Backbone:
């Protein structure tokens, strides 16, 4: 169109789906770092407060 047209800027985001192993609360962890490996990282459950390591499930077995 005209020379002053501004582009639509886009960034890719990854949203990890987390489920507490103790209380089964479900929440999400969004990140712009698509290469971030959260496997083995420690998170606190926002509901019951339990601190646990992340185990990433195999995408072929999580029902998706
Ligand atoms: Zn919990």
Residues:
């Amino acid at each position: 169109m005209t020379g002053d047209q501004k582009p639509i800027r886009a960034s890719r985001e990854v949203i990890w789906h987390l489920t507490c192993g103790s209380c089964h609360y479900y929440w999400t962890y969004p990140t712009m770092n698509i290469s971030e490996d959260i496997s083995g990282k420690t998170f606190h459950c926002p509901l019951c407060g339990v601190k646990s390591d992340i185990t990433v499930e195999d995408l072929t077995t999580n029902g998706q």
Remarks:
- DSSP finds no helices and four strands in the chain.
- Residues 14-53 form one domain.
- Residues 20, 22-23, 25, 45, 47-48, 50 surround zinc ion (CB under 6 Å).
